[in-house]
Structures are given as structure tokens and as C-alpha cells.
Design brief:
Helix content: 25-40%
CATH superfamily of the largest domain: HAD superfamily/HAD-like
Radius of gyration: 19 Å
CATH topology of the largest domain: Rossmann fold
CATH class of the largest domain: Alpha Beta
Shape: globular
Order of helices and strands: HHEHEHEEEHHEEHEEHEEHHEH
């Protein structure tokens, strides 16, 4: 039976709990087995978000939403490896972080910093996706820094936005912030100051900062326009000859919903409905999105077990 998290990490977010429960039931995996099977065949690859999806509280692989230690996700990972599923990590984390994550978990391919770098075979090859900076850009971070936009953001949004330290200090491509802002308004203003850049929402984080005056905290990435996780996935699919029906993605954030436009099925882990209530408004546009019964890493395990139990993957 699904249980709510012990400590509500979504306090401060306005939510319609009745609507969330209704949508979770309508889009449940258990309630839509025939539709899911009709959208998929011979799935060799899973594109997986990391924080809030593959991991539990604090980024722990073995801690569930109730802050109890569990082997559910580890056992599902072992099943995936035995079935030769290619689990591709798609994350806001840097390629250095994902290298260690992938090596530890027995994985080989990953997409870093929300799509700016696609890495194959633990670093044997890296493909840079520079978006509005053009195909010849080899240092995305330097191009962003030289615009002066980092200082501009902190000056314009005091108490609302700040570098997401300590992780902000070791980025390769995309500066990362934490706080709570009106993204539409901010991006319109930033386009005038630094054309070609966009601030993207990467979901709720359980972070309290004494220098932020916000009701809850979200993570944001500063990116060149035209770079997204789903575009990086689409390019990887094209490169490796995957059709939509060969692929799924798993995620938790509103930004992850766009995976549904390129893969056969997108699975939203249950906590995503709570962390990003606007997803409820967007779901009617995506008939191939389904919601797990469980939260966080146990929701991730639910999807992997579905693929294997229903013989939707090659092995």
C-alpha cells in the first residue's frame, strides 16, 4: 500500500490534494496496463532522472519517502542490469558527478546538466549540446559568465535567488541557483539583458537558506536557449536508432514532462504531482504519461519491475 512521506517536503506549495489523488488514480500504472503495453515494445533503454526520482531523501539511493532504509530500488537496478537494460541517467548533475554515480551503479551512459553534455561509455565520448551558443561553442560556462548575468540575477532578485552552494562552485556548463521566482517574468527581463539564455526550473529541493525569503525552495539552471533534457534524449535516440516505442523515461519535475513528447511512455513518480501542481493542468496534453503508486526511488523501482515483469524489454 502506498504511504505518504513521513515529513511533508512540499509544505508551502499550494496543492489540490483531491485533484492529485484523482489524477494519480486515472493515470496509474495498475489502471492502464493495456494502454502502456500498446505504446511500448522491446524497450532496451530507460532515460532516468536522478534526484527525486532514482534517489530518496537527501539523494540517498537506499532511503525511501518514509525515511526508512529499503532495498527496493537496488533490487530493481540489479534486475535491470541482468536484463541488459541501458539505464541512462539524465540529470542536472555534472558529468563528473554522474561518472561516479554511473560507475558505482554499473551504468555507462548519461546526460549531464539538463542536456548540455551527453556522455557515452563512462567518458569515452562526450557530445556537447550548446543550443543558442552554436555548434562551435566548446565552453558553455565561460560564455555564460562573460555576459555578467550571474551578478545581474543576484542583484535583481535578492532574497529570492542565490547560488546553490556548494554544488554551484563546481559546474562545467550551467550555473545552478536555488530560490523561488516568477520564471516567466524573469526570463522576459533576462532576454533583454543577456539574449539567448534561459533559467529553467529543475524541481523542488528540501533546502532551507537563511538568506532566502521564500515559502519553499526550487532548483534552477541557467542555460543557453535550445538545450533541454528531452532534446538530448531525442538526439541520442536518433544516433542509436531507437524508435519511440523502444524507449521510456522516468522523472519527477514539471520540466521532465517534456520527455513525453519524444519517448514511448513517460512515468512520473508520485511525488512529482505534489512538487509541481501545474503538472495537473498539462497532463491532458500528454496521453502517454502515467503516474507511479509509490514516491521517489520506490516509484522508480515500480517502473523497472513493470518493464521486466511484463516482458517489455529484450531480455
Amino acid at each position: 500500500m502506498m504511504r505518504e512521506p513521513v515529513d511533508d517536503p512540499f509544505s508551502g506549495i499550494e496543492r489540490d490534494l483531491e485533484a492529485i489523488e484523482r489524477v494519480a488514480l486515472e493515470r496509474s500504472i495498475s489502471g492502464n496496463p493495456a494502454t502502456i503495453k500498446s505504446l511500448l515494445s522491446c524497450v532496451p533503454v530507460v532515460y532516468s532522472d536522478v534526484d527525486g526520482t532514482l534517489t530518496g531523501p537527501g539523494g540517498c539511493f537506499f532511503l525511501n519517502a518514509q525515511r526508512e532504509y529499503t532495498l527496493e530500488s537496488a533490487q530493481a537496478l540489479v534486475r535491470a542490469l541482468r536484463a541488459e537494460l541501458d539505464i541512462v541517467l539524465v540529470s542536472g548533475r555534472t558529468k563528473g558527478q554522474l561518472f561516479e554515480n554511473a560507475r558505482f551503479m554499473g551504468l555507462r551512459n548519461y546526460i549531464a546538466e539538463l542536456g548540455t553534455e551527453t556522455v557515452y561509455d563512462l567518458g569515452e565520448e562526450t557530445v556537447i549540446n550548446a543550443g543558442s551558443f552554436g555548434p562551435n561553442c566548446t565552453d558553455i560556462l565561460a560564455r555564460i559568465v562573460e555576459t555578467g548575468v550571474l551578478e545581474w540575477l543576484e542583484e535583481q532578485y535578492p532574497g529570492q535567488l542565490e547560488p546553490h552552494l556548494p554544488w554551484a562552485a563546481n559546474r562545467d556548463c550551467t550555473p545552478i541557483f536555488r530560490g523561488l521566482v516568477d520564471l516567466t517574468e524573469l526570463n522576459l527581463r533576462m532576454e533583454e539583458f543577456a539574449p539567448g539564455l534561459i533559467l529553467l526550473d529543475n524541481g523542488v529541493i528540501p533546502w532551507k537558506s537563511p538568506t532566502l525569503r521564500v515559502s519553499y525552495t526550487r532548483a534552477y539552471h541557467l542555460m543557453p536557449r535550445g538545450v533541454t533534457k528531452e532534446l538530448a534524449v531525442a538526439r541520442d535516440m536518433e544516433r542509436r536508432g531507437f524508435e519511440r516505442h523502444n524507449t521510456i523515461a522516468i522523472g519527477d519535475a514539471e520540466a521532465d514532462l517534456a520527455f513525453a513528447a519524444v519517448v514511448g511512455v513517460f512515468f512520473l513518480v508520485r511525488n512529482g504531482l505534489h512538487a509541481s501542481p501545474r503538472i495537473l493542468e498539462q497532463l491532458p496534453n500528454y496521453p502517454n504519461v502515467f503516474v507511479t503508486e509509490h514516491f521517489l526511488n520506490e516509484g522508480w523501482a515500480e517502473v523497472i519491475n513493470l518493464l521486466i515483469d511484463e516482458q517489455l524489454c529484450p531480455s
